[in-house]
Design brief:
Elements (H helix, E strand, L loop, with lengths): L1 H21 L10 E9 L2 E8 L2 E7 L1 H6 L3 E11 L2 E16 L7 E23 L3 E22 L5 E21 L4 E11 L3 E13 L4 E16 L2 E17 L1
Antiparallel strand pairs: 1-4, 1-12, 2-3, 2-12, 4-5, 5-6, 6-7, 7-8, 8-9, 9-10, 10-11, 11-12
Length: 251
């Protein structure tokens, strides 16, 4: 049941990403350009959640995620026409993080299984551009589909599992700066933040890229994302952070 539900969320998010960034193709103006990127994020994951047994904090390193064959998908698409740009970003995580239990005599450890789909979309306007620097400001949304199962592994007490499921959308504002170091090397920095009161999110990204030719580019850098939201049991949060590598195709 969880697999079917998350598959539907992932497909809905992927369809939304494609629709969001290909919508300009329907316009009469033919000056649109497109960038499609696939990314590998070497992220460490921290899950913090309130449960009837107390607050739990579980962590998962990228190396452990690879070893346990946990799954993650990351893709970005951008459409641009003159000063206007539309940026879409899709993340999918199916991860299990481990941590200490707040009830050490009753349970030996805690495992937090997280199935998370995150779809972001931003409409951006280029407020400054010269031969070296381009600055974009924008606004949009970040949608979350979350399913977190926290399992207290039994010691003196039987094993217990507490499930939390919530889907929501946060409005966000964003800023991005791109700097051309020369005709091949470039840098990008982007930050966004938003929320609704009972949820909030923000992220920061910094990369250095290399133009292989007029179509292909490689990028590497660092990305951080955090989300917090209220639940029936208190509050939950997710943090993803680590190096990122990507390849982009422009057409």
């Amino acid at each position: 049941m969880n697999l079917l539900k998350n598959s539907r969320s992932f497909m809905a998010g992927f369809a939304g990403l494609l629709a969001f960034t290909t919508l300009p193709a329907l316009a009469q103006d033919s000056k649109w350009t497109y960038d499609l990127s696939m990314n590998l994020w070497f992220n460490n994951t921290t899950v913090t959640t309130d449960t009837p047994r107390g607050e739990v904090q579980a962590e998962l390193s990228f190396s452990d995620a690879i070893k346990d064959l946990d799954f993650a998908f990351m893709g970005t698409a951008e459409a641009r026409n003159g000063p206007w740009g539309i940026i879409g970003d899709l993340l999918y995580f199916n991860l299990t993080a481990d941590g200490p239990t707040p009830n050490g005599r009753l349970f030996s450890e805690v495992a937090a299984g997280s199935q998370i789909t995150v779809l972001s979309g931003v409409v951006a306007y280029r407020v400054h551009e010269d031969a070296t620097v381009a600055v974009d400001l924008g606004a949009g949304f970040r949608a979350f589909w979350t399913d977190v199962d926290t399992t207290f592994v039994g010691a003196a007490a039987p094993t217990e599992t507490f499930g939390q499921t919530r889907d929501w959308v946060d409005p966000i504002v964003a800023a991005r700066v791109r700097v051309a170091f020369n005709d091949k090397w470039f840098g990008t920095a982007m930050v966004d933040a938003g929320g609704t009161g009972d949820s909030d999110t923000w992220q920061a990204l910094a990369t250095v890229g290399y133009l292989l030719n007029e179509n292909w580019a490689f990028q590497g850098g660092y990305r951080y994302m955090k989300a917090e939201w209220d639940t029936d049991q208190g509050q939950s949060s997710l943090e993803f952070s680590g190096p990122i590598l990507g390849v982009s195709y422009r057409f």
